[in-house]
């Protein structure tokens, strides 16, 4: 007699077969058009399990973003801000010895899934407040997240910068035997919304609309605004997450220390981010590369 898990996997395989399918940018997996977004086949089971099984806690914090929108920076900032009262000194902070993706795990990687499933992470024993990351569009989040009082911090970015970052990133992580995705091919796919968790515009609009309806539920950030006035936005994030800085903390330059700790330059130079693999398949250094594309 088949186990419940095996039956569930079989049902999901059948569902995948019935969905429209396209090649992913890295060309090592497929994209399924699932609930109006392009779900990577390697995350498909995890996304299904996430929707059905995850039970949010009132204190949970979710860092939401479309891929390659400054996700790792926002994860670092959010994790440090929400836990800033738990560390007597930022000089021995967990961020110095752990990659932000490890401190703020993706739902899509931990709730079920296949080879990327983290067997060592037990959601019930995580220290509260639990901080998670997700690329899943708002309409496809579990009811427990949408209906609870947990907080969502979302970031959007200029689509041109997002496209360039994504194109460079996927070409870096692809296997050597896979041919490079040309700029023209990637641009056409991007404009058609065909990318991991795309289309980018519907992802952005989903969180924007929820922010308009429930500003205390979803904080909608813009990458360029965050970069332009990081000090003010750190305060905004802290206030939104109900952990504002005290006058003493501000006078002791805690905000400035957090900004420095979470800066691109600081994280890029940490040994934990210069070497090693994330989920056994992606070099951590690939998360910390500034991408530029000159036109004309």
From TrEMBL:
Gene3D superfamilies: P-loop containing nucleotide triphosphate hydrolases (3.40.50.300). The keyword Signal does not apply. Its EC number is 2.8.2.-. Keywords: Transferase. GO terms for molecular function: sulfotransferase activity. It holds the Pfam family Sulfotransfer_1. Residues 59-291 form the Sulfotransferase domain. InterPro entries: P-loop_NTPase, Sulfotransferase_dom. It comes from the Eukaryota. Belongs to the sulfotransferase 1 family. This is Sulfotransferase.
């Amino acid at each position: 007699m088949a186990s419940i898990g095996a039956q569930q996997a079989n049902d999901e395989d059948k569902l995948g077969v019935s969905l429209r399918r396209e090649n992913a940018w890295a060309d090592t997996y497929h994209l399924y058009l699932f609930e109006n977004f392009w779900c990577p086949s390697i995350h498909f089971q995890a996304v299904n399990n996430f929707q059905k099984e995850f039970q949010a806690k009132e204190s949970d914090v979710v860092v939401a973003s479309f891929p390659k929108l400054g996700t790792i920076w926002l994860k670092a900032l959010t994790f440090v801000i929400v836990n800033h009262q738990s560390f007597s000194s930022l000089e021995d902070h967990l961020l110095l010895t752990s990659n932000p993706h490890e401190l703020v795990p993706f739902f899509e990687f931990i709730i079920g899934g296949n080879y990327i499933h983290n067997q060592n992470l037990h959601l019930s024993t995580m220290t509260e407040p639990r901080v998670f990351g997700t690329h899943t569009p708002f309409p496809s989040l579990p009811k427990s997240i949408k209906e609870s009082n947990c907080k969502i911090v979302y970031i959007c970015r200029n689509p041109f910068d997002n496209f360039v970052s994504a194109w460079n990133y996927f070409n870096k992580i692809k296997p050597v035997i896979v041919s490079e995705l040309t700029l023209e091919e990637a641009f056409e796919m991007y404009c058609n919304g065909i990318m991991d968790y795309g289309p980018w515009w519907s992802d952005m609009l989903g969180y924007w609309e929820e922010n308009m309806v429930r500003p205390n539920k979803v904080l909608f950030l813009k990458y360029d605004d965050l970069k332009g006035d990081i000090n003010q936005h750190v305060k905004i994030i802290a206030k939104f997450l109900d952990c504002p800085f005290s006058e003493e903390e501000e006078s002791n330059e805690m905000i400035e220390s957090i900004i420095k700790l979470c800066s691109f330059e600081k994280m890029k130079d940490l040994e934990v981010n210069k070497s090693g693999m994330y989920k056994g398949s992606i070099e951590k250094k690939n998360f910390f590369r500034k991408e530029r594309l000159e036109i004309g």
